Amino acid sequence: MSKAIVIGASSGIGLEVARLLIQRGWTVGVAARRVDLLNTIGAADVEMIDVTSANADSSLMALVERMGGMDLFFYASGIGKQNRELAADIELATLQTNGVGFTRMVGAAYRYFAQQGRGHIACITSIAGTKGLGPSPAYSATKAMQNVYLQALEQQAHARGLDIRITDIRPGFVDTALLAGDFHYPMMLKPQTVTREIIYAIEHKKHIRVIDWKYRILTALWRRVPRSIWRRIKL
Ligand SMILES: NC(=O)c1ccc[n+]([C@@H]2O[C@H](COP(=O)([O-])OP(=O)(O)OC[C@H]3O[C@@H](n4cnc5c(N)ncnc54)[C@H](OP(=O)(O)O)[C@@H]3O)[C@@H](O)[C@H]2O)c1
To answer: Of 37, 165, 177, 207, whose Cβ has the fewest other Cβ atoms within 10 Å?
Structure first.
């Protein structure tokens, strides 16, 4: 394994993952909308990609071509906002980026790997997909969609005899621009800590990785909370 493409590498977790992969000797191509930030990483190649745009998959393939191939597709792009008033624009933009954009880009990588006969797709989803979270309905729902989509791809790859590894990375709260604002989040993780665990999950070809251990306990517990109680919990 040597060539990786990181989508959503301009800030936060994606940026840290791109940096660490480069440090570990990978040839890394990076993409996102803010090319000025991408240009500071020291990546082998850079592509401006807005995952909500209809030609984003072609831009990915152009980057793969210039890189001379792809072994690891790492997907970090995403948006998320608390939306307690359920503003329609926030909900719909979240579906476009985390739902449509995700499906477009992961699908393009999957088809490429299917043709190549092997490859590794690793995506940052979230623990938010493991339960419906009242403060951010579209974020929570799109993350659940991503969790299930990756599970489905894993089964499809196996059924088709394709050597495509899927890794679903589910961090808890991480101190990045995504959570910037007045709201105080508990149990906040540092992006660097999360990134080390992500690299471990990639190198050990994990199927699912909840980050970190505290969130592994938390999600195991909250999965057991019955719906009749869950709907009464104030988050
Ligand atoms: N922070 C957390 O607590 C947390 C927890 C669990 C999961 N996650 C997930 O981790 C991923 C990374 O988030 P982060 O926390 O690192 O936040 P971040 O610092 O805001 O990074 C988000 C990344 O997504 C990219 N992006 C957003 N919209 C895009 C679009 N339309 N096209 C292409 N790229 C786009 C951004 O690049 P441009 O703006 O330059 O396009 C940026 O590189 C997200 O999927 C998020 O849901 C975050």
So the answer is: 177
Residue nearest to atom 11 of ligand 1 (CA): 76
pLDDT digits (tens, 9 = 90+) for 140-175: 999 999 999 999 999 999 999 999 999 999 999 999
- What pLDDT is stored for residue 4 in this prediction? 98
Q: Which residue's C-alpha comes closest to atom 36 of ligand 1?
A: 8
Q: What is the pLDDT of residues 12-68, one digit of tens each?
A: 999 999 999 999 999 999 999 999 999 999 999 999 999 999 999 999 999 999 999
Closest ligand 1 atom number to CA of residue 173: 3
- Distance (Å) of CA 80 to CA 52, 67, 126, 203: 15, 31, 11, 28
**Residue 175 near residue 95, CB atoms below 8 Å:** no
* Interatomic CA distance for residues 193 and 153, integer angstroms: 28
Structure tokens at 54: 């209809």
Nearest CA to ligand 1 atom 7: 126
pLDDT at 181 over 90: no
pLDDT of residue 195: 98
Task: Tell me the CATH number for domain 3-230.
Answer: 3.40.50.720
Cα–ligand 1 centroid distance for 222 (angstroms): 25
d(CA 192, CA 189): 9
Between CA 48 and CA 58 the distance in angstroms is 12
CB 210 within 8 A of CB 223: no
Nearest CA to ligand 1 atom 26: 77
Nearest atom of ligand 1 to the alpha carbon of 77? 24
Question: Where along the chain do its domains lie?
Answer: 3-230
